[in-house]
Specification:
Elements (H helix, E strand, L loop, with lengths): L34 H26 L13 H10 L6 E3 L5 H7 L3 H9 L33 H14 L5 E6 L6 H13 L3 E7 L2 E2 L2 E2 L13 H4 L3 E5 L3 H16 L5 E6 L18 H8 L3 H11 L5 H24 L18 H15 L1
Parallel strand pairs: 1-2, 2-3, 3-7, 6-7
Antiparallel strand pairs: 4-5
Helix pairs in contact: 1-2, 1-3, 1-10, 1-11, 2-3, 2-8, 4-11, 5-6
The structure holds thiamine diphosphate (TPP) and magnesium ion.
Organism: Meiothermus taiwanensis WR-220
Keywords: Oxidoreductase, Thiamine pyrophosphate
EC number: 1.2.4.4
């Protein structure tokens, strides 16, 4: 239930922020969250950060071919994950959402199987690394083509409305995606149809090397919602509680039949765009150093300290526990081995056509010889 006091102002000139840089709760209402949940947010942010570090090791040691670092996006992603009804609502993520799918509950072994492209991957290694999905948890598989998942998210939301399933489609993307035609088509149609969708921009102010100043002349991304006749929330995405509460309001609003919204979570991208990018060519190290000072994890740690929910021993044990879980899952995924090449002929047709039967037979013979 959305409490009356947690009604946020759309189109604010300053980002919505509930916890300041010193970790002080600055909202005019009580957060009302139990200690376990407040600590859970920290746990999931730390797990996301440590996963990111592990993925960097996997690319540097040649075990995967592509990563899109999500460090700096953790508060936003954990806030989104906790606002969804897990396994009921649908998530249409993008490639930088590994921390989000982890917080949503996609098992680590699947995440590593997907990263390695081996038999531990439920998608049978048919996707690019960093393109997760989960049938069990209603996570639409990531599509590389920027913004191409936005109209499908709208379509899914419209279907949820027509079938009265009580579900919501949450669709994430970057700032660069907002310049695509698909983005406009998807938001416009969702607004016209009052589809239960929430569109979430993880605005890190870069689309690879293109700075936001070259992306849009609008004062921010959230304000674009005005043109579609839906609320646009401008939010500090380095604040996990602001991300969570605004997302919760937008999702429950959509579920209650009040239509879609656009949520802009302003974040930092601490890494390069991807493993195929050298960001030192277009972004000064001074700029990055300043952003790192605003790291969402220490900021939330300061909040927990002030709530009396922090102690160093707990945090150290947590770090150790997560690191062990990451390593164990990685080892398990590594042992899964290569997928069976013959699987490439499965899952596309209900009945395999003769020419694929023929090719499958030829490959099977080749593999046996
Ligand atoms: C239609 C399309 N155009 C270009 C690309 C190449 N491309 C991949 S990621 C990317 C930048 C996207 O930036 P943004 O939406 O801000 O997300 P971020 O990576 O910053 O999280 C581009 C241009 C693509 N994948 N698809
Ligand atoms: Mg971006």
């Amino acid at each position: 239930m959305v409490q009356e006091k947690v009604r946020f102002q759309p189109f604010s000139s300053e980002p919505i922020r509930l916890v300041d840089e010193q970790g002080r709760w600055i909202a005019p209402f009580e957060h009302g969250l139990p200690p376990e949940q407040l600590r859970r947010f920290y746990r999931d942010m730390l797990a996301a950060r440590l996963l990111d570090e592990k993925l960097v090791i996997l690319i540097r040691t040649g075990k995967t071919s592509f990563i899109a670092p999500h460090a700096g996006h953790e508060a936003a992603q954990v806030g989104i994950a906790h606002a969804l009804r897990k396994g009921h609502d649908w998530l249409f993520p993008y490639y930088r959402d590994m921390g989000l799918v982890l917080a949503l509950g996609v098992p680590l072994v699947e995440i590593f199987g997907q990263t390695l492209g081996n038999a531990a991957d439920p998608a049978k290694a048919r996707q690019m690394p960093s393109h997760p999905g989960s049938k069990a948890l209603n996570v639409f598989t990531v599509c590389s083509a920027i913004a191409s998942h936005i109209p499908p998210a709208t379509g899914a939301a419209l279907s949820m409305k027509l079938r009265r399933t009580g579900q919501v489609a949450v669709c994430t993307f970057g700032d660069g995606a907002t310049s695509e035609g698909d983005w406009h088509a998807g938001l416009n149609f969702a607004a016209v149809q009052q589809a239960p969708a929430v569109f979430v921009c993880e605005n890190n102010r870069y689309a690879i090397s293109v700075n936001i100043s070259k992306q849009t002349a609008s004062e921010n991304i959230a304000i674009k919602a005005q043109a579609y006749g839906i609320p646009g929330y401008y939010v500090d995405g380095l604040d996990v509680l602001a991300s969570y509460f605004v997302m919760q309001e937008a999702i429950e609003r959509a579920r209650a039949g009040e239509g879609p919204s656009l949520v802009e979570l302003v974040v930092h991208r601490f890494g390069a765009h991807s493993s195929a990018d050298d960001d030192s060519r277009y972004r000064s190290r001074e700029e990055l150093a300043t952003e790192r000072q605003q790291d969402p994890l220490p900021r939330y740690q300061r909040f927990l300290e002030q709530q009396g929910l922090w102690d160093a021993q707990w945090a150290n044990e947590l770090r150790l526990e997560i690191s062990k879980a990451l390593e164990a899952a990685l080892q398990e995924a590594l042992q899964a081995g290569e997928p069976d090449p013959l699987e490439m002929f499965d899952d596309v047709y209900a009945a395999r056509p003769w020419h694929l039967e023929e090719q499958r037979r030829l490959l099977a013979e080749e593999l046996q010889s």
